[in-house]
Specification:
By secondary structure, this protein is of the alpha+beta class. 15% of the residues lie in helices and 46% in strands. It contains 11 helices and 49 strands. The protein has an 18-stranded antiparallel beta sheet that branches. Strands 4-5-3-2-1-31 form a 6-stranded mixed beta sheet. Strands 23-24-25-26-30 form a 5-stranded antiparallel beta sheet, with no helix packed on it. Strand 13 (376-380) and strand 14 form a beta hairpin. Helix 5 crosses helix 7 and helix 8 packs antiparallel against helix 9. The chain is globular.
Length: 914
């Protein structure tokens, strides 16, 4: 039957046959269902996950059962559509995402935060994550008034009430973490200190229009931090303000958020922010006077310390990390001096490393290579030696020279490892917090707080210690207190009310008492010898030192008998799942929206198009459809695409028809093609590589080709990724393809195409694009199947100064060197205006091409070369708070020896919107 299908349908049938033959990596994908009744309607949740992740899904459902009604009650809104939940089990960082377009989907990364970051200071990071992402869902889904009309007409693309600045969107969700739980980032003193350090700098983001910049860690979190604290400030002034802002904005025409601020607060957002900023900074007003006479102040001579990366004190020197807009720096600070050194790596954490055999002390740094499925955690010693640890390592400690202990989190379980050897494995869903290495009696111990739920769903925080000598875990004390410091075998914990708890690990005695008032101000502290070094809540610009404190601590608190210890009782969350069935992606194969767009002034003829896309929740099946009308020639052109991605294997099929301009005749060119591809994605340390095979069927109609052809070929494409922020090569890509083509009525021939592009960053203010292409067809005649180049909007063989199809033949070379000189980096807009200028660059460059045929001033040249020079400007912007749009204005010139000077100009727009 396959043999008798029409040629075009054969490719689709072949593609479907290939799709069904590709094995999936999933063992048994299930859809788990939950319905939650609220005062504003029934919430429907569908989690799609491997059966191995059922316990995690049940944990998420238990949280939603308890907390989703509270969130819905506050916002007075419940999404009517089902919310799909997708788990990412390969992620090496703790994060998630939420979208309401084209469907309501929450993605949750199934891992816990690392050792020191602000997210890790939650008793239950899974609860904080679920609340954060579900709050996004409730916010972004709200659509009323004229926006509801757009939604009813165009589908989910009309959900425009959530098109707000990033600081507002993320601020709402960050606020919710703390409002609906006893913890959350807004209750984290360490995060407040980092935010205060930035706000105290008079040159850093004084007004509301720059909160969304520049988007790199840790400053990329500025929108979360500032948005959360700003909205919390408004909510505390007038409860219900956040709900009012979202409710009113969901019925306003897009970009009218200031109208909602007027209605809900009585003034513009920018005026509210000025009040908030003044209120926040006043809490950290700089004072040269030492408020604690018993403490010594050490000034932190660095604007932006990254305190969540930790700090260590070695022989009276404070080691800490700082970061500007791009680079990390090592800092060594004492009362007498301060040194600062550029770091070659993106530092995650700094820990004390002790070579116990030689009693030599040093510090180590850890860094996550990249957010990839095969991420490696780098361990950097004083001599810059590098040891690769597994990506799931959350904390790394050197206990002897070149001997490392890691705390890992995988499959919802914490383990303590030495290399691949598992020393200890905990129960599922126990969260480790504040992992601290200790040494006394020449032995190594690790102290940490374990947070978990009992079988009765009671939240418990218990301090435990792991002994390296006995390879055992010892429960110490049930307490919500946080670790302050340890003096030898005495551990001091700080209670919320200013009291302290001291545990003597030799006697296992618990002591409770009070110390001086500054104890309650400690955010982070380290002991060096007998001296205590501290960060205090009131000042991010100073380290405080208490000399000989460890000699005094033993006499400050009385002893008390008895410690409360709880035997772990495993919690069962499975009852939170209402039902489950096999995952059925075909149930979701229907469009959620449609939209139209115009295409003018490019290398194709002017047209108007309507389009839609749809996919299943796991993004395994991706469909696209469009229909274009070329109104100058009164012709229609359809397009269809389908991609199947079950795992690293993927395959795709697409059909398209296009019409082009032609410089040599008034008649338009046209191309109709069907392509089938099969590939496999590899991830390596510095490169992503995708080899594959492809089949295509095409029909062209132009001056040189009026026939049909069939291609069979192979390809390899890749992306080169930078390892360090200061690498010369910032990004690169390449494509290699080879094919055998059979043209109707002609002898078959081979073809080869090469493409490469590298983005170089030799200086912070200078970026260079180096690009090269080569194409060759193994034939002599030009009456069929030739290569085309020119224009400025093509993937291959583009050339500034000539129109598309002005370079053609059986062989084509093009090269490009394009320089961007930065002249301005405002990273700001105006108030809440939805246009945000990131940077402005001057452009200079040259293109060079060689082809069998060139068209210059509508005249033909053979086997010649041509070169253009151009000058222009680029403005990198953020439009509508969400979409990056780069606008380039280019003026080019060609000084041809036969036809004289050819000048041209164009505007090029690069954006995911177009």
């Amino acid at each position: 039957m396959f043999l008798f299908l029409p040629k075009k349908l054969k490719y689709w049938a072949l593609a479907l046959l290939v799709f069904n033959s590709i094995p999936t990596s999933a063992k048994n994908i299930q859809t788990y269902n939950l319905e939650v009744e609220t005062n504003y309607g029934t919430l429907s949740f569908k989690a799609h996950a491997d059966s191995d992740q059922k316990n995690y899904v049940a944990r998420v459902f238990a949280i939603l059962k308890e907390d989703a009604p509270k969130i819905v009650d506050y916002f007075q809104y419940a999404p009517s559509e089902a919310t799909h939940i997708v788990l990412d089990s390969d992620a090496t960082i703790s994060n998630g995402s939420a979208t309401v377009f084209p469907a309501n989907v929450m993605e949750l990364f199934v891992t816990t935060p690392r050792a020191m970051e602000h997210l890790s200071r939650n008793n239950d990071p899974i609860r904080a994550l679920v609340i954060h992402e579900f709050t996004h869902m409730v916010h972004l889904d709200q659509t009323r008034g004229v926006l509801k009309f757009l939604k009813d007409t165009f589908g989910s693309i009309g959900k425009l009430g959530g098109v707000t600045p990033r600081w507002f969107t993320e601020g709402v969700a960050t606020w919710a973490e703390s409002f609906f739980t006893p913890y959350g980032r807004l209750k984290n003193d360490l995060m407040k200190l980092e935010l205060a350090a930035r706000m105290l700098d008079n040159n850093y983001c004084q007004t509301i229009d720059c909160l969304d910049a520049p988007g790199e860690y840790p400053n990329g979190q500025y929108a979360y931090w500032t948005g959360g604290f700003f909205l919390d400030y408004l909510e505390q002034k007038k409860p219900g303000t956040i709900q009012c802002l979202i409710f009113d904005n969901s019925s306003q025409f897009v970009f009218m958020l200031n109208h909602s601020f007027f209605k809900c607060t009585g003034q513009k957002a920018s005026d509210n922010f000025k009040e908030f900023r003044q209120h926040f900074v006043e809490q950290y007003a700089k004072s040269e006077k030492n408020p604690y006479s018993s403490l010594t102040q050490i000034n932190v001579k660095e604007k932006f310390p990254v305190w969540q990366s930790g700090f260590e004190v070695i022989e009276g020197n404070v080691h800490f990390i700082s970061k500007d807009d791009k680079y990390y720096y090592k800092n060594i600070l004492s009362e007498a001096h301060h040194t600062k050194e550029l770091v070659k790596y993106d530092i995650e954490n700094i820990e004390r490393a002790t070579d116990y055999s030689k009693k030599q002390k040093s510090v180590i740094y850890t860094a996550l290579e990249e957010m990839r499925t095969d991420s490696k955690r780098l361990v950097l010693g004083q001599n810059e030696r590098i040891i690769l640890a597994k990506g799931e390592s959350k904390a790394v400690f050197e206990i002897e020279n070149n001997r490392f202990i890691t705390f890992n989190y995988n499959d919802n379980v914490w383990t303590i490892n030495e290399g691949d050897n598992v020393l200890y494995k905990d129960e599922p869903f126990v969260h480790y917090e504040q992992i601290i290495p200790l040494q006394f009696d020449d032995k190594t111990f690790f102290l940490f707080k374990a947070n978990f739920l009992t079988g009765a769903q009671e939240e418990i925080s218990e301090w435990k210690i792991y002994s390296m000598a006995s390879k055992t875990l010892i429960p110490l004390h049930i307490s919500d207190s946080r670790f302050l410091f340890n003096c030898d075998a005495t551990i001091v914990l700080g209670k919320k009310d200013g009291e302290i708890e001291a545990i003597d690990l030799r006697k296992m005695d618990l002591s409770i008492g009070h110390l001086e008032s500054w104890i309650s101000e400690i955010v982070e502290s380290r002991v060096d010898g007998n001296d205590l070094y501290m960060l205090l809540k009131s000042d991010p610009t100073k380290i405080y030192k208490k000399e000989n404190f460890c000699l005094e601590i033993k006499n400050l608190v009385p002893s008390e008998d008895g410690r409360e210890i709880l035997n772990f009782s495993k919690s069962d969350f499975t009852e939170a799942i209402d039902s489950q069935q096999n995952y059925a992606p075909y149930k979701y194969f229907w469009p959620h929206y449609w939209m139209f767009y115009g295409n003018a002034g490019t290398d194709t003829l002017d047209s108007i198009s309507i389009f839609t896309t749809f996919n299943d929740p796991l993004d395994r099946h991706l469909f696209g459809a469009n229909l274009s009308y070329y109104y100058d020639i009164e012709k229609w052109a359809p397009g269809l695409s389908y991609t199947y991605i079950p795992n690293s294997w993927w395959t795709s099929i697409d059909y398209s028809k296009k019409f082009y301009d032609n410089s040599l005749s008034a008649k338009e060119n046209s191309e109709e093609s069907t392509n089938v591809k099969l590939g496999y994605d590899f991830e390596f340390v510095h490169i992503d590589l995708t080899p594959g095979v492809q089949l295509s069927y095409s029909s062209r109609n132009d001056n040189f080709d009026n026939g049909k052809s069939h291609d069979v070929g192979v390809f390899a494409r890749g992306v080169v990724r930078p390892y360090l922020a200061q690498d010369l090569v910032q990004e690169g890509s390449f494509l290699i393809s080879a094919f055998q083509r059979k043209q109707d009525n002609y002898k078959s021939y081979r073809g080869y195409e090469l493409y490469s592009k590298f983005n170089l960053g030799p200086l912070p203010s200078l970026k260079i694009d180096i690009e090269g292409t080569y194409g060759h067809l193994d034939k002599k005649t030009n009456r069929h199947g030739i290569l085309y180049g020119g224009g400025y909007n093509q993937n291959l063989y583009s050339f500034y100064g000539l129109d598309y199809s002005d370079l053609f033949g059986n062989e084509l070379w093009t090269t490009r060197a394009k320089f961007y000189f930065n002249v301005l980096k405002p990273y700001r807009g105006y108030d809440l205006f939805p246009g945000f200028i990131k940077e402005v660059d001057v452009i200079a460059g040259t293109d060079y091409a060689r082809a069998n045929y060139l068209v210059v001033k509508n005249k033909l040249k053979t086997n010649d070369t041509i070169q253009s020079y151009y000058l222009g400007a680029r403005m990198k912007t953020l439009v509508g708070y969400l979409a990056p749009v780069d606008v380039e204005v280019i003026f080019s010139t060609i000084n041809d020896e036969d036809y004289g000077r050819v000048n041209s100009g164009f505007i090029k727009i690069n954006s995911p919107l177009f």
